[in-house]
From TrEMBL:
The keyword Hydrolase applies. Signal peptide: none annotated. It comes from the Eukaryota. It catalyses: an N-acyl-L-alpha-aminoacyl-tRNA + H2O = an N-acyl-L-amino acid + a tRNA + H(+). It holds the Pfam family PTH2. Keywords: Hydrolase. One of its GO terms (molecular function) is peptidyl-tRNA hydrolase activity. The keyword Hydrolase applies. It comes from Cirrhinus molitorella (mud carp). It is an enzyme of class 3 (hydrolase). CDD domains: PTH2_like. This is peptidyl-tRNA hydrolase.
C-alpha cells in the first residue's frame, strides 16, 4: 500500500481466534459465537487503545483488516494464549460469563509479519 510520501506502509491486522467446537461440537448458535468474537475484538482495542499501532489501525476506519481463525477446542485456545503471553503479544482471552468458559481471543492490531508466524497452524474460521 502506497503512502503519500511514495513509500509503502505496513499492513496492520487484528487477528481473532475463535473456538470452532462451540458450533460443531457444542451446538452454540452462530450468532452467539460471532458475538464472542466481537466482544474479544472490542476488548482488545479498548485495552490497548493508546498503543500506536492501535491508533494507526483506527485512523484507517474504512480499511481496517481483521482475520478470523479457528482453534479446534478450549485446550488449543488456552495454549495459544499462553504462547502469546510468553512472547509478549498483547491480546484478550474472552471468557464467557457466568460460565467462565474461554471462547475466543483477539490480538491488538499488529503488523501482519510480526504475529502471523505464531498463528500459522490455525486455519481461517469456517
Amino acid at each position: 500500500m502506497a503512502t503519500p510520501s511514495g513509500g509503502t506502509s505496513r499492513r496492520l491486522v487484528q487477528y481473532v481466534i475463535v473456538r470452532s467446537d462451540l458450533i460443531h461440537t457444542l451446538s452454540w448458535p452462530l450468532g452467539a459465537v460471532i458475538t464472542q468474537a466481537c466482544h474479544a475484538a472490542t476488548a482488545a482495542i479498548h485495552l490497548h487503545y493508546s498503543d500506536p499501532d492501535t491508533q494507526e489501525y483506527l485512523a484507517e476506519l474504512d480499511s481496517m483488516h481483521k482475520v478470523v481463525l479457528q482453534a479446534p477446542d478450549e485446550a488449543s485456545l488456552s495454549t495459544l494464549s499462553s504462547t502469546l503471553r510468553e512472547k509478549d503479544i498483547a491480546h484478550k482471552l474472552w471468557m464467557e460469563q457466568p460460565e467462565n468458559i474461554p471462547t475466543c481471543l483477539a490480538l491488538k492490531p499488529y503488523p501482519k509479519e510480526t504475529v502471523q508466524p505464531l498463528l500459522k497452524k490455525f486455519k481461517l474460521f469456517k
